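Let us work through a complete example step by step.
Step 1: write down the sequence.
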Amino acid sequence: MDSARRHGLKNFQLKGTSRNMNTRVGEGFQQEVSALYKKTNGKDAEHQISILDENEETMARLDMAVNAWQESQAESEELKLIAGDDSDQEKHWKLGSPESPILPRRLEVLRSDNRLYHNFDMRLREYLASCHPASPIRLEDDIKILPCKTLVVNYQSMVNWKGERDILRCNPKFHNKSRYDSIIFSAENNPLALGKLELVFRCFLPRGVTLDLAMVRTYRNSSSPTFISLEHVERGALLCPVFGASKEVFYIIDCIDEDMYLRVNRID
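Step 2: predict the structure and record it as tokens.
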């Protein structure tokens, strides 16, 4: 007992702690209140402090809103989004990072080492004749396309019905590495079709008609690409290859966010 008395105080000083781990609880709040109190005249200080606090909170929210807007503007400039007409305001997608306009035949020649571009011009004409008969194209008509490296897709979240956005890349040299993102798109008899973007472009047809299209390599039939209209693109997707499988198989990663989980598992 004598030993405990002799060494107890020293042990508390070296190893002891307060119950709340800090003897100055709420110190930051006290400093804030003290600073606000100095701005009052000392009369009915609580009411004046609450008004000052509301004003500062309002200014902070406004400042955050301005910063968010500036960041969105800077992002739009970085993406180099293509300006469109009034009808583009109703579209849920935008194209960005455009390259130079080119004829499909010329693009086919430039990328002749890529089998996905074999007969690109003819396949594009066949798609347009089949899926867009309202804009007939004669064999002698020239078609111009504007390849783009960025696709911005706006969609409605299935979690809270708020607007969300995916920035998808289709770039052979994105930060010195190729990047071709995957998408979910609606196809005939398949509301959850999955594909990999190979080319995103704006197609200029005769008589001033423009169409935003994508060449997609679907995961069910990866050997031959297909063309789709960007109006059928729902959002981006993330897939992982199944290593060790006898053929090319991919897993859908549905845990990247809540919306993806609900879409993939069809939970209403």
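Step 3: interpret the result. DSSP finds six helices and eleven strands in the chain.
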